[in-house]
Specification:
Layout: H1 2-18, H2 23-36, H3 42-48, H4 51-67, H5 72-83, H6 88-105, H7 108-126, H8 131-146, H9 153-162, H10 166-192, H11 200-207, H12 211-214, H13 218-236, H14 238-241, H15 245-260, H16 264-268, H17 273-291, H18 294-306, H19 310-327, H20 330-347, H21 354-366, H22 375-386, H23 393-419
Length: about 425
C-alpha cells in the first residue's frame, strides 16, 4: 500500500500543480482512489477531514457573502479615495493598507474579489495604469493574510492542526508582517512613482464619487457590522471561551442570516463549494500517505540530516516553504507539511511553536513570488484579464520576487531574534 499511496498522492499533486484538470477534481479523484484501492478505510478518510477548517471557511464565506450586498466594502474604498483627495500616490498607499486590513480580518481571497473591481474603476477614472495597484493588491493581501488565523487558508489549516488561536497569530506574526508591509509599500512607491501622474480633471472626476451612494442596503450594513463584530470578538476571546474557529464563524453566519431575514438558499450559493471540496480531497490524500508511514519516514530523515537544531529546522522550513509556495499553490503544500511538522515537533524540543510560525510565514509570504503562488494571485490576474489588463508571469515576478526575498530575509531575522 506504501507504493500505491505514494503514486496516488504524487499524481494528484501533479494534476493540481499543472492545472490540466480542475484542482478540485484532481483532489477528490485521488481521495476516492485512496479509499477504493484500500489504502485507507472510509471511516479513516472521514476522520482525516478537519471540520474546524471546513466550518471556519464556510462560516466566513457566508458572512462576507451576505455583507457584501450592503455595499460596505465598496463604500470604504471610495471613502479612502476622498480622503486622499484623488492623489494617485496617496490613493495607492491607502488602498494598499485597506487591502491588508481586509485580508487580515476577512481573508485575502474574499478581499481581492471585493476590491479589485473597485480599484479598476478608480484607476480608470484617475487615468492611471491599474497595474501597480494590482501588484500591490496581491503582495499586501498575502502579507495581511499572514497576520491572522483567518487571513489566509494556510493559516486556518495550521491553526486548526496546531491548536493555535486567533490571538496566537496576532502575537507571533503581526509584528513581523507589519514591518514587511511597511517595507513593501514604500518600496513599491519608489518602483512605480512615475506611474502616479494624473490630471486635475481626472482627480475631480474621482472626487465626485459618493461613498454614501455605494451603500445599497443600510439595515443590512448595520446587521453585517454587528455580526462581523461578534465574530471578531469571538476570535479574540477564544482563549477565555474555548470556542473553536468553526463554531465562531458559523455562529456569526447564522446570526447574520437571522438578523437580515435572508433566504439561506440564496447565500449558500456564495460559498465557494469547489474550494471546500478541494480541501476535503486534500485532507484525505494526506491522511492516506500518513497512514502508510510516508510522513513519519520523511520526518525522521530530516531529523537525521539536520538533527535537533531548532534554528536550522526553522530556517529550512521557512525558506523551503517559500520556495515551494512560489511554485505551487500554498494550500496543498501546507496540507502536506502539517503532519510532517507534527512529527518533527513530537521528536524534538522546539521553542514556542516556532516551526509552525516558520511554515506560516514561508507559505504566505513565499506565495507572493509568482502569479500561481497563492489563490489570491490567480484571482487578481483573472479579474484583471476581464478588464483587458494582462499580468504576465515573468513581468509580475520581476517586481514581486525581489520584494518576496526581502520579506523572507526580514522573517528569517525575526525568527532568529525572537525565538533563538
Amino acid at each position: 500500500m506504501f507504493t500505491t499511496a505514494l503514486i496516488l498522492f504524487g499524481l494528484s499533486f501533479l494534476f493540481i500543480i499543472t492545472e490540466k484538470v480542475h484542482r478540485t477534481v484532481a483532489a477528490l479523484t485521488g481521495a476516492a482512489l485512496m479509499v477504493l484501492l484500500g489504502v485507507i478505510s472510509q471511516d479513516r478518510a472521514l476522520e482525516g477531514v478537519d471540520f474546524n477548517t471546513i466550518g471556519l471557511l464556510i462560516g466566513m464565506m457566508v458572512l462576507v457573502g451576505i455583507a457584501k450586498h450592503s455595499g460596505m466594502f465598496q463604500a470604504m474604498a471610495l471613502y479612502i479615495v476622498k480622503k486622499a483627495r484623488g492623489n494617485p500616490m496617496a490613493v495607492y498607499i491607502l488602498l494598499g493598507l485597506l487591502v491588508m486590513i481586509f485580508s487580515a480580518l476577512l481573508d485575502n481571497v474574499t478581499t481581492v474579489l471585493l476590491l479589485v473591481p473597485v480599484i479598476m474603476v478608480i484607476t480608470n477614472n484617475l487615468n492611471v495604469s491599474p497595474y501597480p495597484y494590482l501588484v500591490s493588491t496581491i503582495l499586501l493581501s498575502n502579507i495581511g493574510g499572514a497576520m491572522t488565523l483567518i487571513g489566509d487558508p494556510p493559516n486556518i489549516l495550521i491553526g486548526s492542526a496546531a491548536h493555535l488561536s486567533f490571538n496566537d497569530f496576532l502575537i507571533h506574526l503581526l509584528p513581523v508582517c507589519v514591518i514587511i508591509a511597511v517595507v513593501t509599500i514604500f518600496g513599491l512607491v519608489l518602483v512605480y512613482k512615475k506611474d502616479f501622474v494624473t490630471t486635475k480633471e481626472a482627480r475631480a472626476s474621482v472626487l465626485k464619487f459618493s461613498p454614501r451612494e455605494a451603500i445599497t442596503d443600510m439595515p443590512l450594513l448595520k446587521h453585517s457590522l454587528i455580526a462581523i463584530g461578534v465574530v471578531i470578538v469571538g476570535f479574540l476571546t477564544h482563549d477565555l471561551t474555548g470556542l473553536d474557529g468553526a463554531t465562531i464563524a458559523l455562529s456569526g453566519a447564522a446570526l447574520l442570516l437571522v438578523l437580515s431575514l435572508r433566504d439561506p438558499e440564496d447565500h449558500l450559493k456564495d460559498v465557494e463549494w469547489p474550494t471546500i471540496f478541494f480541501f476535503v480531497g486534500l485532507f484525505i490524500l494526506v491522511t492516506g500517505i500518513e497512514e502508510v508511514g510516508i510522513i513519519d519516514g520523511i520526518a525522521h530523515y530530516i531529523l537525521q540530516k539536520i538533527g535537533s537544531d531548532g534554528f536550522m529546522l526553522a530556517q529550512v522550513i521557512l525558506w523551503g516553504s517559500a520556495f515551494m509556495s512560489a511554485i505551487v499553490d500554498n494550500i496543498p503544500f501546507v496540507t502536506a507539511m502539517i503532519p510532517l511538522i507534527t512529527e518533527i515537533n513530537a521528536a524534538g524540543n522546539m521553542p514556542e511553536n516556532v516551526l509552525w510560525w516558520s511554515l506560516a510565514l514561508g507559505a504566505d509570504i513565499g506565495g507572493n513570488a509568482t502569479l500561481v503562488g497563492a489563490s489570491a494571485n490567480v484571482i487578481v490576474a483573472g479579474l484583471a484579464k476581464k478588464e483587458n489588463q494582462h499580468m504576465s508571469f515573468l513581468g509580475y515576478m520581476k517586481v514581486a520576487l525581489p520584494f518576496t526575498m526581502v520579506a523572507l530575509v526580514i522573517s528569517s531575522i525575526y525568527i532568529a531574534i525572537r525565538y533563538f
